Amino acid sequence: MRIAIDAEPLAARMCWCRLCQYLGGGSGTVNVCFPSDKLTVTGEVRWHHSIADSGTAMRRGFCPECGTPLFSLAESRPHLSFIRAGALDDPDLLAPQAVIWTDAAPDWAHLDPDLPHYPAQIPPIA
Ligand SMILES: [Zn+2]
C-alpha cells in the first residue's frame, strides 16, 4: 500500500506511551502529523480501535500484509493524521520536536536532552 502526501508536516513527536512501546518493539514511536485531507491512501489499511492512555478514542492503522504501523488517528480530531515516521519514504522529513509520555518510558530509554519533555499527553495541534 502507498500513502501520497500533498502537504508539509505540521509537527513531529517522539511518544513513549505504553502502547507505542508495544508498537515499537520496546522503543517509543516517532509520529509525524499531516492534514488528513491531504493524504491519498492506495491499497488496504487494517484498523484497530482502542482507547489511548490519555482516554482518547483512537484508530491505529497497519499494513495487513506486513504489520507495519502506519497511522494513529484520534476519533475526536479526524482532520489530523499522524503517520509513523518509519513508514515514510523519507524518515528525515521532520525530526521530533518534543518527547511525550516520558513518565511511561523505561529507565534505559534515551530521551533527547535537546527536546522539550512532557510526562504525558500534550494539548492537540489545532
Ligand atoms: Zn504513544
From TrEMBL:
One Pfam family here: GFA
InterPro entries: CENP-V/GFA, Mss4-like_sf
Entry's transmembrane regions: none
Keywords: Lyase, Metal-binding, Zinc
Molecular function per GO: carbon-sulfur lyase activity; metal ion binding
Ranges where the CENP-V/GFA domain occurs: 1-109
Listed PANTHER family: CENP-V_GFA DOMAIN-CONTAINING PROTEIN-RELATED (PTHR33337:SF40), GFA DOMAIN-CONTAINING PROTEIN (PTHR33337)
Recorded family membership: Belongs to the Gfa family.
Protein name: CENP-V/GFA domain-containing protein
